[in-house]
């Protein structure tokens, strides 16, 4: 184990065991270096690593503190690794994403307000009115993030945000079949919003699962031909409006 790893796991152990708690200032460098048996350079590198994971917060002029350790923040740091996944790895995670998006939509259906519903339909109308892939991607993100927010679980919303951010790296609307994909995506969004408007959790969950399944199929177009065993057929595209 390297000195940096030793410092990293030493600090992590202090937090995991409750010796250092959320919001607490960590001990001085000299004290930690002596206890962990590492140099200041190794300790500082370990602190930087934990800060990237949102576990520790360096505060200029004040010191270094354990973060508030909010679940949504810790889960959000998964983007550091999920963003590195190749497409094949991302597609493997879509089964999990379908389950989570469905749950978020069902929860949102039970908590939907007129104001939030109006905002969702504004996003849909804006998506339908533009052909700019970047703008559509941003509006799509806002639409789904709003549903997750209303669902009432910030940690779930953070995790779904990590998954969606990686998917957004692939601009499915720029594919040759992009116009058809966009029409199908617009229809999916309306199906989700209509179910939310009816406050129907089962219908909202089903519409969300269908939309994620469609996205998974469209992403297969970016796989090399020898790896693509699940790319949608022409029949699939007709069925989803593509």
TrEMBL record:
KW Transcription regulation (keyword) present: yes
Protein name stated in the entry: GntR family transcriptional regulator
Keywords for the protein's UniProt record, in alphabetical order: DNA-binding, Transcription, Transcription regulation
Domain HTH gntR-type stretches: 1-69
InterPro entries documented for this protein: GntR_C, TF_FadR/GntR_C, Tscrpt_reg_HTH_GntR, WH-like_DNA-bd_sf, WH_DNA-bd_sf
GO molecular function: DNA binding; DNA-binding transcription factor activity
Pfam families, A to Z: FCD (PF07729), GntR (PF00392)
């Amino acid at each position: 184990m390297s000195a940096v790893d030793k410092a990293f796991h030493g600090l992590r152990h202090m937090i995991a065991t409750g010796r250092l708690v959320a919001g607490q200032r960590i001990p001085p460098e000299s004290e930690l270096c002596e206890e962990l048996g590492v140099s200041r350079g190794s300790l500082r590198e370990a602190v930087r690593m934990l800060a990237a994971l949102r576990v520790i917060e360096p505060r200029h002029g004040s010191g270094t503190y354990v973060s508030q350790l909010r679940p949504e923040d810790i889960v959000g740091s998964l983007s550091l690794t999920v963003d590195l996944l190749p497409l094949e790895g991302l597609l493997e995670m879509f089964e999990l994403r379908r389950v989570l998006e469905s749950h978020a939509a069902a929860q949102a259906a039970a908590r939907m307000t007129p104001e939030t519903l109006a905002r969702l339909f504004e996003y849909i109308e804006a998506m339908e009115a533009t052909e700019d892939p970047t703008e559509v991607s941003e509006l799509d993100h806002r639409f789904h993030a709003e549903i997750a927010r209303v669902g009432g679980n910030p940690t779930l919303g953070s995790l779904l945000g990590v998954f969606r951010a990686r998917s957004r790296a692939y601009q499915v609307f720029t594919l040759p079949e992009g116009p058809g994909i966009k029409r199908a995506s617009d229809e999916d969004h309306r199906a989700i919003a209509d179910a939310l408007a009816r406050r129907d959790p089962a219908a909202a969950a089903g519409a969300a699962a269908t939309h994620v399944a469609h996205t998974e199929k469209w992403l297969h177009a970016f796989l090399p031909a020898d790896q693509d065993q699940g790319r949608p057929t022409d029949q699939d595209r007709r069925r989803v409006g593509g």
